[in-house]
Amino acid sequence: MTTRTTDSHVTQPEPYRWQGVDLLAYKEADGTFRSVTRQVLTDAEHGQGVSLRYFEVGPGGHTTLEKHEHTHVVIPIRGRGSALVVDRVVELELNDVVFVPSWGWHQFRAADDEPLGFLCSVTVERDRPVRPTADELEELRRDPALAAFLRV
Amino acid sequence: MTTRTTDSHVTQPEPYRWQGVDLLAYKEADGTFRSVTRQVLTDAEHGQGVSLRYFEVGPGGHTTLEKHEHTHVVIPIRGRGSALVVDRVVELELNDVVFVPSWGWHQFRAADDEPLGFLCSVTVERDRPVRPTADELEELRRDPALAAFLRV
C-alpha cells in the first residue's frame, strides 16, 4: 500500500514529509513500540537492492526492541534521542552514523520533549525481526544502563 | 587508502567530520570539478551491497558533469545548492531526495556563499562515469537553463 516515487527530485511540501510518499504506521500495533511513523523514500525500483526509509519517533516514544540477520545503517536527521545498539546505549547527534550489525539488538528512543527522526537503510530482501525471549531480556537487563533504557 | 569503520556509533568530533573516516579528495584533479571532498561512511563491510558517501562542495564549487549505468540516491544535509538531474535543474532543500537513474546526466553545484553537503548512495559494484562528448554537451546546452547551469 506504499506509494513511492522515482521522480528525480522529491521535495518536502512540509519539513520531513516527502511529496508522493505515504506516511505509514511503523508496523501493526503490538504494544512493543510507541509513536512511530515511517516513510519509504527508496526501494527496489531505485536499482541499488536497498530501501531507504525515514522513521520518526514522537517525543517519549520508542521503536521495538529487536534483532535480525540483515543490517541497518541509521542516520538521525531530526530532533534528539538515544539508541541501544548491540550491547550499549548511545546518545545520538544529528548526522551520526549508527551501524546495527547482523543479529545485533537495537531499539531507538526519542527524547521526552523532542521527536527523533532518522534515515534507515536496509536490503530489499531481508529476514523478519525477532524479539527477545524472557531469558534474553533478563540477560540484557543485567546491565543497569540497558535495564534503565529498554522499553518492552 | 580509505579508513572506514564498522563501529556501531560513528560520532562527529566536529560537524560533518565523522570519527575514523578519512577526508578524501573527490577524485583526482582533472579540471572538471571544483572544491569537493568525500567521506566514505559505509561500504561492502556493512553488508548491504551499497556504499554511503558524504560529499561536500565548497561555496561556488561543483562536481563533474557525468553519467553512468549505476544509480545515485542523494540527500542534501548541509548548506544550499542546485543540481542538474537528467535534463533539468533543481534547487535543493535539506533532506530532499534526488534520484539519478541509470545513464542520467548529473552535476551538483553549491551556492556561491554556502557549501552543499550531501549523502550519496551507490552500489559497491559499479561502472565508471563517462563525461559528455562535444556533441552531447552541445545538445545539453540547447536548453538555456542547462547552458547557464553547466560547468565543464
Main sheet: strand order of chain A:
2-3-4-10-5-8
What is the general shape of chain A? globular
Task: Kindly provide the radius of gyration of chain A, computed on alpha-carbon positions and rounded to a whole number of angstroms.
Answer: 15 Å
- Point out poorly predicted stretches of chain A: none
Distance between the termini of chain A: 28 Å
Overall number of strands of chain A: 10
Strand content of chain A: 35-45%
List the helices and strands and how they pair.
Two copies of one chain form a homodimer.
Chain A (H helix, E strand, L loop, with lengths): L8 E2 L13 E2 L8 E9 L7 E13 L9 E8 L1 E5 L2 E5 L4 E4 L5 E5 L5 E8 L10 H7 L3 H6 L3
Antiparallel strand pairs in A: 2-3, 3-4, 4-10, 5-8, 5-10, 6-7, 6-9
Structure description:
2 copies of one chain form a homodimer. Chain A has a 6-stranded antiparallel beta sheet, with no helix packed on it. In chain A, strands 7-6-9 form a 3-stranded antiparallel beta sheet. Chain A is built from 2 helices and 10 strands; from the N terminus they run ββββββββββαα. The first copy, chain A, is mainly beta and 152 residues long. The two termini of chain A are 28 Å apart. The mean pLDDT of chain A is 94. Chain A has a single domain (24-149), classed as Jelly Rolls (Sandwich), CATH 2.60.120. The first copy, chain A, has helices at 134-140, 144-149; strands spanning 9-10, 24-25, 34-42, 50-62, 72-79, 81-85, 88-92, 97-100, 106-110, 116-123. The longest helix of chain A has 7 residues, at 134-140. Chain A is globular, with a radius of gyration of 15 Å. The interface between A and B is large, with 42 and 42 residues. Strand 1 (9-10) of chain A pairs antiparallel with strand 8 (97-100) of chain B, so a sheet runs across the interface.
